[in-house]
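note to self — DONT lose this again. spent like an hour looking for the file last time. sequence + predicted structure for the chain T wanted, 84 res
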Amino acid sequence: MMYSLWFLILCDMVYKNLIKGKTMKTFHSMQNIGKVKYLINYHDGIKTHNDGSRFFNITAFKNKKKAAAFEKELVNQGYIEKPF
């Protein structure tokens, strides 16, 4: 079976990132969690817990415009939105 060159390059990049322990910069947003109106969780691709699982930073907003501005800022910094 022949694999395309792009697939092999992608597999190589993923393998190298797994070896280094790095993952992609990701974020996801949630609404109406308890008393919090807008909640954004984001992972910088580096921080981990002692057991090796990803550590997510949390930012809470009461205003939709501020939450949208923060999401836009994360996208500009290279974060990718990944819903649960």
